[in-house]
């Protein structure tokens, strides 16, 4: 159940990484798509450092922010299927 970025999500003080790897020194393998907000990319090392990584059914998910982490934690199966 994806959420709209303007639905209490836009003011939480983080940035999203562009979908393409236009960042110097960032390889596409260093990026992951947030399962809660499809299209929002996160740098895996940053997500790991911020505690925004979850395991569900043997799969690893990197989340873009604490709001998405909270939503994923509440319904992991809903977002893991996305």
From TrEMBL:
Stretch list, region Disordered: 1-31
Bias (Basic and acidic residues) ranges: 1-11
Organism, as annotated: Compostimonas suwonensis
Gene Ontology MF annotations: oxidoreductase activity
Protein name according to UniProt: YHS domain-containing protein
InterPro entries in alphabetical order: Ferritin-like_SF, RNR-like
């Amino acid at each position: 159940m994806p959420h709209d970025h303007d639905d209490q999500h836009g003011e939480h003080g983080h940035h999203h990484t562009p979908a393409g790897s236009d960042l110097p020194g960032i390889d596409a393998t260093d990026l992951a798509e947030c399962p809660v907000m499809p299209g929002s990319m996160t740098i895996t090392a940053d997500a790991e450092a911020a505690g925004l990584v979850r395991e569900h059914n043997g799969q690893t998910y990197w989340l873009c922010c604490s709001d998405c982490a909270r939503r994923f934690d509440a319904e992991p199966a809903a977002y893991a299927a996305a």
